[in-house]
Amino acid sequence: MDLQLGFFASHRGSNVAAILTAIERGDLDAQPKILICNNPDAPVLSLAQRKNIPAYCLNQKNTEQLDDVTLALLRDHGVNLVVLAGYLQKVGPQIISAYSNRMINIHPALLPKYGGKGMYSLKVHEAVIKSEDTESGATVHLVTAEYDEGRILAQYKVPRYVRDTAETLAERVLGVEHVLYPQTLREIQRGIILLDE
Fold first, then answer.
1. Which domain holds residue 97?
2. What is the pLDDT of residues 159-181, one digit of tens each?
3. In a domain, 195, yes or no
4. Which pLDDT score, from 0 to 100, does residue 34 have?
5. Domain of 63: which CATH number?
6. Helices H, strands E: what count in the chain?
7. What's the CA gap between 68 and 102, in Å, rounded?
8. What is the distance, to the nearest Å, from the Cα of residue 87 to the centroid of all Cα atoms in its chain?
9. What's the sign of the alpha-carbon dihedral 130, 135, 139, 144?
10. Is the pLDDT of residue 62 over 90?
């Protein structure tokens, strides 16, 4: 699959950076086409500027008909795969429908555990710490109308240690996210992972 990527991110964009690094190294054959962010203060906007990627800050406060505008931008930039990377705004149904089986997300847990509405960032890791689970990890999945319920494409496990805090577990999981996301995109590009199964 010829990957023309549209990134959605809300904060630092460390997964966006990991994917761009893989592209720059020649490890991933893909074109970053656009970044959409809902947070005007997000460092990921500066990252996009440094990498010469067109970036737009769009949210309910500054954009009327948000779905229409977002969808038009994705189409104008020739995006064929939307990559959510720490995007904390719910994607509208019109966009999800237009990019059915062409929108992926990375979640900081081993879905189907610790997913769903309100399960993001440290909240996920706090839930794992409160459990008796001995492992956690990251999951790449297709995006559907329901939070974290799309088909799982790839997972990577990490140990959860007795002395872990939510912060130490988060750091370990984020490290594997930076490996798993570019690797999953590479397998999609090579036709090893099929989005339409």
1. 3-189
2. 999 999 999 999 999 999 999 99
3. no
4. 98
5. 3.40.50.170
6. 6, 7
7. 18
8. 7
9. negative
10. no
Helix (H) or strand (E) holding 32: strand 30-37
Q: Decide: 136 and 125 in contact? Cβ < 8 Å.
A: yes
Which single residue is written with the structure tokens 């490290």? 175
Number of domains in the chain: 1
- Which residue of the set 77, 107, 141, 178 is catalytic? 107
Cβ-in-10-Å burial (0-12, 13-18, 19+) of 192 comes to exposed
Cis check: omega of the bond before 54, within 30 degrees of 0: no
- Catalytic residue check, 107: yes
Per-residue pLDDT tens digits for 6-60: 999 999 999 999 999 999 999 999 999 999 999 999 999 999 999 999 999 999 8
| b/e map 144-183, b = 16+ CB within 10 Å | beebbebeebbbbebebeeebebeebbebbbebbbebbbb
Name 138's bridge partners: 156
